[in-house]
Structure formats: structure tokens, C-alpha cells
Specification:
By secondary structure, the protein is an alpha/beta fold. It is 36% helix and 20% strand.
């Protein structure tokens, strides 16, 4: 984080704008909207700026004395030497200063603003790309209607009452999220605040019924945060506790609520933080404490994610739960590697199997896997690669069959190693791929050379 985003209260405080042109006019307008008293200093001041109510116009070249009493300063002249002088003198007095379009001289950045007062959203690229910042604001303008200001004001009106009635901070947050994401919010947004108030009072009266714990079993996809579903993102922001696996990428974990408790329960080869049974018990215990628990799994929770075992335990304990599918590694990783899992000329079927070795063996249906015209995707198969290739050849698959190992698929560290059933074990010995990996076997692997360049994650 290059800057600390804060909101400054400048109401009835003196703010200085150095400059008298169009840019200074816009900046002074923003300060006036925030309730500031504005002093404008420049040899020439545009009539539209000087005429604004609340502006004290000083026709002069900038001097240090003009900083007296200022809470905040904006330099908006077309002379960098003047802007630099303003910046240096302001910072020497510990007065926050912004120099328009010159981040090096700024102690704070003026963001693009989405105003739904009392709800405020500010955007900044740290001066790197003001145009991109404005584009982002425009996108949010379309999904945050103007009447959200009414919803924020409604919440403000009942804030103290709810705080008095729901004293536990975690439960109070859950109360507000339930209120602001449901029918109450819809009533407020459509102008029916009397019905919304009655519903909120009913919620307060039945507080014990809305504070039950719940578990969200969410598929985090194969690694790229852009592959998350909207529903996954929403639940990631609601959870009180995040229980996450080793295969969940760090950028995705960072997208969960900042104040949520995070518990790592990942499993690596021969290194299990918790046994599966202990994870199941952990989810039950946290939910019974009234917490909303996000069980975040790499890929899809129901494809080699043991999600079925976890919800069996939750159901047996009468714990409410939701399941959010994720893009499984087979689909996401293969796509980013430029390998279609099915293709009319190469594969009319696709099989997903786990290559996890137990007691040094792979207990798979080798005859079914070795059939022609199909793709085989092997999860967790890196350490059993030699066995995998040998068994497929033994059961009739040609040793020239193409095969690929994709390491850390869909992430910036994606790496693809290709060969044949006969050659890949030796290539892997030399290249030393690291987990997590996915193995893809079949004629579709030959299409990678034609298709991989179409994707920005080309490796």
C-alpha cells in the first residue's frame, strides 16, 4: 500500500488553494462541497472561482504568510517552481499538501470521489494514472445508485439503538449485514422507510434467532483471483473466521475481510497441519460459537476437495451451511495452459483422477484410463509420475502419448513442462517442478503450441 487512505474533516476549516485557473476552480469546488473555508491565492483569479460563496480571494503571488491558519493546501498553478515552493513550505510546517499532477511533491493524494454521503468512496492510483482512477469511479457509479445515500443515512439513524440492543461487536456486525443485504435495504432504497424501520425493530426483538453460526464452503478456484465468483467474493467479505487450505493463493486470502480471524489448515505432502477429522470438528465448533465461517478451498470443494465429508459433519450437527462452487483446477489450469480438455479430433471424454500415492501405490482403474480418444487429468500426481506413466504404458497407452505438467497454473508463476509418457519422467527429474501441479495426459496436449499464446498467462 503506497498511501494510507484516510478521510479528512475540513468542515469550517481554512484550506488554501494556490492558483487561479480551471484546475484550481475544480479543487476549490471539492473543498467547498466538504464544508471548508477556502482561501485562493494567485496573481490572477478566474471570475467563476472568485465568485464562489465561501472563497476568500487574494490577488498576489504566493508567499509563506499565506499558509497561516491553513489546515490543508492544494497547489494548482502551471509553474512547477511555485508548486515546489508551496510544497516545501507546507511540509516544513507539517501541513498536508497536494500538488496537482505531481506526486513527488505531494504529501497526500486527491482521489476521485464517488459521493453517496454519508457513504463516500475514494479512488486513487497514487498519481500513476488519474484516467484509470476516473474510469474505476465510473464503473462503480453504475452499480452504486444515488439512493444508497438514503440507506447510509438510515443506518446512521439507528446506529446507537442497535449498539445498545446488540452489545457484542461481532454479532452487531452480523445484524447490520443481514439488515443491509435483505428486504430492509430494498424498502429503504425504494423510499418505504416506515416499513424498513418496523422490520428492523422486529429483527432487534428476535435477536437470538439471527445470531446463529454458519459455514460457507467456498471454492477459491485454481489461483487467479479473477476466477472467483461474485457469490464467493460476497461471502469472503462477510465471514468472521477464514479456514483456508494450502492451495488457496495468497492474493485470494488477502481478499477476505481484514479483521477476520485466519486459520491455516493446509495439507502438504507428509505434513498435515490438521487431520481432516479435526478440520471437520473445527468448523462445527466455530459455528456453534455463533461465528460465520468461511471454509476456503482451492479449486472446487467437491472435486478432490473433501467438501462432501465436511458438509456431512455439518449436517449431522445441524449447522447451516452454503456451498459455492469454484472453477476446478482441471478446467482453469488447462485453459490457461492452452490445452482444451476435449476436442473433436483428439478427445471425446475426460476423466479426473487423484494421483495421491498410498503405501507407494496408485490404486486406479488403469484399463479405463488407457482408453483412446480421451483426456486424463491427474490431481496431486507429481510424486507418482513415474508410476503413472509406467502403468498407462503397461495397460496399452502408447508411450508416445503427449503429457504435460502444469505448475502453479493460472498464476503469474505458471510453468508448463511437456513430453511423452516415455520421456516426461526424465524431463521432470531435470526440471524439478514444484507442487501444486496438475498433470494432463492425451492428444489435446499437442494443441498447446497452437493455442497457448492466446492467453495472457502464456508460459
Amino acid at each position: 500500500m503506497d498511501y494510507l487512505p484516510i478521510f479528512a474533516n475540513v468542515r469550517n476549516k481554512l484550506c488554501l488553494v494556490v492558483g487561479g485557473g480551471d484546475v484550481a476552480t475544480r479543487k476549490a469546488g471539492v473543498l467547498l462541497e466538504a464544508g471548508a473555508k477556502v482561501r485562493v491565492v494567485a496573481p490572477e483569479i478566474a471570475p467563476a472561482l472568485a465568485a464562489q460563496q465561501g472563497v476568500d480571494s487574494v490577488i498576489a503571488r504566493f508567499e509563506a504568510k499565506h499558509l497561516e491558519g491553513a489546515t490543508l493546501v492544494i497547489a494548482a498553478t502551471n509553474d512547477r517552481s511555485v508548486n515546489q515552493q508551496v510544497s516545501e513550505l507546507a511540509q516544513a510546517r507539517n501541513i498536508p499538501v497536494n500538488v496537482v499532477d505531481d506526486p513527488e511533491l505531494c504529501s497526500f493524494i486527491m482521489p476521485a470521489i464517488l459521493d453517496r454521503s454519508p457513504l463516500m468512496v475514494a479512488f486513487s492510483s497514487g498519481g500513476a494514472s488519474p484516467v484509470l482512477t476516473r474510469l474505476m469511479r465510473g464503473k462503480l457509479e453504475t452499480i452504486i445508485p444515488q439512493n444508497y445515500s438514503r440507506l447510509a443515512a438510515f443506518a446512521e439513524r439507528f446506529r446507537e439503538l442497535v449498539k445498545t440492543r446488540v452489545t457484542n461487536p461481532a454479532k452487531r456486525r452480523i445484524f447490520w449485514e443481514n439488515a443491509l443485504e435483505g428486504v430492509i435495504a430494498e424498502k429503504v432504497l425504494t423510499g418505504d422507510e416506515s416499513s424498513a424501520e418496523a422490520m428492523l425493530q422486529n429483527m432487534l426483538a428476535s435477536e437470538d434467532n439471527i445470531q446463529r453460526g454458519e459455514v460457507y464452503l467456498v471454492g477459491a478456484g485454481p489461483g487467479d483471483p479473477d476466477l472467483l465468483t461474485f457469490r464467493a467474493l460476497r461471502l469472503m467479505q462477510k465471514a468472521d473466521v477464514v479456514v483456508y487450505d494450502n492451495l488457496v493463493s495468497k492474493p485470494i486470502v488477502e481478499m477476505t475481510r481484514r479483521d477476520a480471524q485466519r486459520i491455516f489448515v493446509g495439507k502438504r505432502r507428509d505434513d498435515h497441519t490438521l487431520r481432516q477429522e479435526e478440520i471437520n470438528e473445527l468448523l462445527v465448533r466455530l459455528a456453534k460459537e455463533g461465528k460465520r465461517v468461511l471454509r476456503l478451498k482451492g479449486g472446487d470443494p467437491f472435486i478432490f476437495g473433501r467438501g462432501g465429508e465436511e458438509i456431512e459433519t455439518l449436517a449431522a450437527e445441524n449447522i447451516p451451511f452454503q456451498v459455492v462452487p469454484g472453477i476446478t483446477a482441471a478446467s482453469g489450469v488447462a485453459s490457461y495452459a492452452g490445452i482444451p480438455l476435449t476436442h473433436r479430433d483428439y478427445a471425446q471424454a475426460c476423466m479426473f483422477v487423484t494421483g495421491h500415492l498410498k503405501d507407494g501405490t496408485m490404486n486406479l482403474d488403469w484399463d479405463a484410463l488407457a482408453r483412446p480418444k480421451q483426456t486424463v487429468v491427474v490431481y496431486m500426481g507429481l510424486h507418482g509420475l513415474d508410476t503413472l506413466c509406467a502403468k498407462l504404458i503397461e495397460h496399452g497407452m502408447p508411450d508416445t502419448t503427449p503429457i504435460a505438467i502444469v505448475q502453479q497454473g493460472t498464476t503469474p508463476n505458471q510453468r508448463v513442462i511437456t513430453g511423452t509418457l516415455a520421456t516426461l519422467p526424465g524431463i521432470a527429474e531435470r526440471e524439478q517442478p514444484q507442487a501444486p501441479t496438475l498433470i494432463i495426459v492425451g492428444g489435446v496436449v499437442t494443441l498447446r503450441e497452437k493455442l497457448a499464446w492466446f492467453h495472457p498467462q502464456k508460459s
